[in-house]
Here is the input.
Amino acid sequence: MKKLISLFFILVSICAASQQNRVQASVDTLKNKIGAEFKLTLKTNVDTMSTVVFPAGKSFGPLEVINSYPIDTIKQGSSYELIKRYGLTQFDSGKYTIPKLKVLINKKPFLTQDFSIEVTNVSVDTTKQKMYDIKDIIKVGKNPFNWWPYILIAIAISAVGFLVYWLIKKRQTKKRPPEIFKTPIEKATSLLNQLEQKKLWQKGEVKAYYSELTDIARNYIEEAIKIPAMESTTSELILALRNASVKKNMQLTPETVENLERVLRQADLVKFAKSKPLEFEIADDRSKIERAIIILNKSLPEEVTEVQLSNEEFKRRKLKKQKINRIIITVGAVVFLFIATAIYFVATKGFDYLKDNIIGHPTKELAEGEWVTSEYGNPGISLETPKVLKRMDAKNALPKETLAFVKDFQVFAYGAMTDNFHIAASTMTYKEGVQMDLDKALEGVIISLETKGAKNMTVKKEGFESKEGVSAVKGFGTLTMLDPVKNENIKMKYEIVLFGQQASLQQIILMHREDDKYAIDISKRIFNSAVLKKLDE
Here is the structure.
């Protein structure tokens, strides 16, 4: 093996050679006008049992795919030549790169070569184009005011206000709790009046009428005299009532007890023997029950008649209701103030100010936080970063055949590649006799990013001067990565700087969301802070 061939040059060369043997790529022209079609052709020779999957997508790097032509198949003896053509275009002038494309042959990836193309402007013949005078300057004050954001915000505030009002009103108009009676006699009297208003026996519902009538009497006896009237038969109830009258010294006449017993037995006949009393008998039974309840109540000892239901439960419910209403009003006021504050900042300082300073912005917090300066790897590379970089497991970062040429490899990183901001710093020293080709090393890093999920990469390269005079190269551009949380592709910017000195490589990789202005400032500050430890020091 030749000593001057670097680690990544070996890997990339081997990979490129294998791909060239299997996949050939060509483009019909390297220069075209805006909107014109570049025809990209991919060819491969395979046997009859092979499966081939050509790349698919709406764009290849910065170029848009406007046509994906059917695959042409040409039989050549025992093999087939597969030809796939694409129509690409770009609507902005400039120089672009058709990136390396991945072709799967029997599920094994092969990369094509990349092409540098140029898109030129369409020349305009001003002698044939009709010209017009320049229009007068429109005064700023006459520009129509864009009302719709404020209308939407006003609608949102009105909706929140209506919701708070509706919740309060609903609490206020909620169904009242059942009426609380102070005494058993008050309850029995009220229920008797309600029973008469139902007019059950007039409607032919005699059984239901007697059932409610006797339940009222039994409930009263159970609550006022404290005997199990609801669970007792008529005979058991009358016996218990006579015993209670003796124990409680109740002044009951035999006629009162007999009238009560007579109505209870009449009710038993109606409910179980389908007896049908006459109308005057029904009215008389109702009067007997009412008189019996009144007499029982008057005969109760004074200490019993003075027992009243506690109002503590009612008071507790009232206080709870008032507390809930206060909470609803407070929450509504807080929501209203929050929305009003948001409207004020949007109207005076714009939505970006609200988003970055009130709601919060992750990379803004990184930029304005406390930075740390640390040295990473060997030979060391000193960086100033928003957070300390953590040592990563480097065993799986390189192929086994590559590790055979590596003497030491260390990786330090912060954040995942799909986070708002990602930084990685690594150092690598090679065994004696191996040297580094920075250009090939950069290509190797690009391929490594693609294996980690990077797609639609645009690649630009330029020189980079380090403070220490160490040889360096910089690669930058855009790519897309699949966000595993949201399951959607996100567009990101990346910057890679490689420093090479003797048999060592020092590397910095930065990645962030494409439209993040704070991340751009962080990247500049990190690169400006880089200090390399030279091997001859």
